[in-house]
Amino acid sequence: MKRAKRGQPFRHNPTSIKQAGQTTVFFTLILTGLLILTAVAIEVGRIVYARGEVGKAADAAALAAAARINVPEYRETGQVVFLPDVYSNAQDMASMNASYLAKRNIPVTVSDISIDQSTQMVRVSVTADLSSLIPGILPFHGQYTVTGYARARKDG
What we know:
Blueprint: H1 14-66, H2 71-77, H3 86-96, H4 99-103, E1 108-116, E2 121-129, E3 143-151
Antiparallel strand pairs: 1-2, 2-3
């Protein structure tokens, strides 16, 4: 390594200074990219979990609706008919089984209850608006509907 002569200033190699600056910029860009990817992964995970909650609520609502069959009418006519409180029971069960969404003030709503008379399968659709969980940059729709199924209970 050369030493500066007395009275002359020491000169740094300008190439090494440029390379050190490039490394800092490169590291900053990589770190920013990783942080963005981590944030997107967390958001997608929240959405997937919320969609699972809607599915769980739909299954619980279907079981609740299947338990609200008018048994005396079925015995008389052979026709499977719901009791008048079927929607409120299904809604209560859907709400109880969507605690993750309830904590975030996202209601689940029973949107449809029907029964297939031939197979006696109860079909319940539950809808939730997940748009508050979805950042604008992600390509997901806010409204999410899941259908749950259960076999009708005809025992009294």
